[in-house]
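Thread: Newbie trying to understand structure tokens

Hi all, I'm a second-year student working on a class project, and my supervisor (Dr. K.) asked me to get a predicted structure for one chain before our next meeting. I've only ever worked with sequences, so writing a 3D structure as a token string is new to me. If someone could post the tokens and maybe explain what I'm looking at, I'd be very grateful. Here's the chain:
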Amino acid sequence: MNRTKSFKKQFPWGLMAFFAIGVAIAAVAPYASFNPANFNNATARFADETPLRLAGLYVHAFSGGIALIIGPFQFLGRLRQRKPTLHRWMGRVYLTCILLGGLSAFLIAPGMISGMVGEFGLILLATLWLWTGWNAYRNIRAGNVEIHREWMTRNYALTFAAVTLRLWLGLLIFSQIPFLESRYAGDFDALFVEVYRVVMWLAWVPNLIAAEMIIQRRRETAQKSLDANRTAELATGTD
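---
Reply by user tm_fold:
Sure, no problem. This is what the structure looks like when written as tokens:
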């Protein structure tokens, strides 16, 4: 029974870590070659633009990939308890990557193939990414551990957009392929652009909603535990 409970508790974390590490490696690999020929449909144009924009793309890709990999390990209670120094240093690296990834997003957002809808989606994502990261940092510096944990949950939900973006992208492209000829006149690029507009929002809005649900559930669990302890203390005092 204990093993079953342990598996149920660890499985969501394992699944999150699996997707995070897998997508980080797959997403960063094309940029690690520093060969624009390996870029995807959405970023190929950066090779023909200003060096600053291209540099912004590299910074965004590498910092986002590192944050994506580190993130799951920051939620491991055993790591926090047994190796607090490592946890703190990983947190510093993570938040530095958020800062770099968020700021570089403002460089690459203008002129995206998804147009203004996609640009605004990325800019808002980057803004919230920086804001939640700042609040996580501010609260841990103030010693507010639980509040820090809540802000980190929100922040990593936004970081995990790198994963959900690709999942949604594949799903929506697959759903639109049957309409390639009738709706897009056989133009796959037109299909990709339309899907990308939607994905720039689907990638992170549901994640943030899920994060708030997790935070609320934790609060309710903590409150129930507190109420139970108070009831037990009162009963003991009465006896």
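A couple of things are worth pointing out once you decode it. The mean pLDDT is 89. Residues 205-238 form the longest helix (34 residues). Feel free to ask follow-ups in this thread.
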